[in-house]
Amino acid sequence: MSHYYVDPDIMRTERVFPMQGRYGAYRFDMNENPEGLPKGFVESVLQEVTPEFLAIYPEPDRFQHKYAEFIGAKDENVLATNGTDMAIRYLLETFGERGKSVVTVSPSFEMYRINCSILGLKHVAVTYEDDLTIDIEKIVSAIDTDTRIVVLLNPNNPIGNTYTEEELERVLRRADSVGAIVIIDEAYHYFYPNTFLRYALSHKNVVVLRTFSKLFSLAACRLGVIISDPEIIHYVKNAKLSFDVNSIALLFGERILDHPELIKDLIQREAEGKRYLLSTLRKNGYECRDCAGNYVFVKPRNPAKEVAARLEKEKRVLVHPYGNPLLKDYIRISTGSKQAMDIFLETFWDIDKNN
Ligand code: PMP
Q: How far is the CA of 87 from the centre of ligand 1 (A)?
């Protein structure tokens, strides 16, 4: 026991941080873009990073204005955050109530559960069925008068399912009836074109989250966006740090929005690579799961954990295996261009030979 005060919820929280030393490896483990943005584009944006630029505190308004225009919303609907990571913390801090519940699904993106633990919120997770479908009925009935926040990832990560409009509306009706807010995490928008943005712009209690870490390939910069009703944005602004998003992130974000042809190209390259990966694996007799994000599951012939460990050790190829019983036979592979997928496939054939 320490001799100083530690918040008991933070003391109890156990963290496992992502692995380091991934530079130079072939990265198919964290749903980044394995190749990143075109080099010429990155170099041209860096030209704008002058001593004056670095000396001035970040000014997010211009990016937020551009982003609002980009999605057809008003400036008051949009708030930039230090990655969606920070957006999740702000939202749970602002709209969560100690001891009351946050309804999500499991398995899902871990930071929802971890932030509940840190903030003393009750994490209520609806588990996927054995066939990796989710029963919307179970989500609806997990929402009760203790629920302050409901979280839907559309598509979910790691299980790449999506929700229909009808399913979302059932959840919304139930959330409305108990006064809960609904967060729709669209980190994987662009890989999956449908969006529930219109709900965030027309309902008082719906939030959509977007990130620049996935299709926009800026995971290092940390740039996320909260889109919601101006009143929700106002309360989150009360909670936020003065300068959480840095100027380099804002600059890169703006320049990406200035280049719709770049966005189109990124979408096309990933879609082509993913189609190629799935068809090649299936042609070779592998069972695959086509997720709606920039990732797929494949069931190797050899034990999944072993294959992942050997890919890392022998080939410097990083993929994601799972301890969760629903996913333990699979590895998750983040998708990228056809060339990136060829790098994965060549090493995978070599490691996952028939015994
Ligand atoms: N939401 C989901 C569903 C994710 O999968 C991730 C990252 N894997 C995030 C949020 C966090 O993204 P960011 O880099 O913007 O913090």
A: 10
